[in-house]
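To assess whether the prediction recovers the assembly geometry, we first specified each molecular entity separately, as shown.
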Amino acid sequence: MKIIITTVSPNIESEVDPRFGRGAYLLEVDPDTLAWQAHPNSGVSAAGGAGIQAAQLAANQKVEAVISGDFGPNAFNALNAAGISMYLFGSCRTVREALERFKAGQLERVGAPTQAKHH
Amino acid sequence: MISLRVAVASGKGGTGKTTVSTSLALSFASEPPLFLDCDVEAPDAHLFLKPTFERRQEVGILIPQVDEARCAHCGRCAEVCQYHAIAVLGEKALVFPQLCHGCGSCALVCPEKAITETLAVIGVLESGPAAAGVHFARGVLNVGEPMATPVIRQLKQWAAPQPGQAVIIDASPGTSCPVVESARGVDFLLLVTEPTPFGLHDLRLAAQVGRALNLPIGVVINRDGIGDNGVAEFCAAEGLPILLRIPFDRAIAAGIARGRPLVEICPEYTARFQELWAWIVEQTRQVERGGA
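The predicted structure of the complete assembly is given in tokenized form:
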């Protein structure tokens, strides 16, 4: 199983980045083996559609879940269409904390966009 | 005979673009101009020129529609889209119409010919006769639609001037795509500003847009008498001629607020706008001669 966490730095010791589309890195992690790979998020500088771009990457990497601080309507619809579940960090500050809480089933699952439209 | 086209822009909003453009249009002694309200997100020139709309046409952009039966989910469309308006998520292609610029690249690259383009209406064009024989046309972007540029582009094509008829374009505030689209292809850019640091800041940006579009530029200072000398100093340093100053005057403000054009509030401005127009005509002739 692979998941994506939005992070500030490109490694598993990073703090989480609360933004999905505009998060600095998309860290792909296997929660069991802790094998990871960091993808720089090209959506950081995108004029628009950053959340869709990040969702496209998640779908291309065939991950099963994404953990971030919030999901806009476009990102939500894209991830939903890809069948990728969305979870919120909540109070977690680091990737390791978020992974622990995710494995323990303690993260809030998102069933609707958590943020208003940009336009 | 070639039509002279002048765009009125400002950078900062609320400096008096529409005050200037509408009174300029009302000052023509003969052969009234075609007036285009290109501020499609918040058109307001009709308040002063009082047109009767006789023609109306919906406008939109071509949005991709994916035939899932033909789609092989190869993802080429998502790769080519600069605006992330289409995503291929596993076994599903998803279109985000509000991000689409209608360029058609996705349909072009689709190897399965699974994409057809359908018109999504985003606004309307309207035209008709207005005060003092002015030919009026405007675009109105539907509320909630984010993209003004296609409406402006289509307005400029739809409302064509008679041979030799002047065209006055009222642009939107700012210096982004809608302003560039409004000013593209005109012969002269008239920048309306106010003598304040904010006015100057945005005049600087608007002048850069004009220079990038290779347009001759003239400046109108509105609310003259407030603020500081920054705008005048900038214009002198940049070689931008100040063609008209309109004072900060309560009677003008009160009249504008009631929808009265400046030339009606202060009839002496008719001659001033005629002089301004004659100067622009002369200036653009010189540019033509200089360029020939």
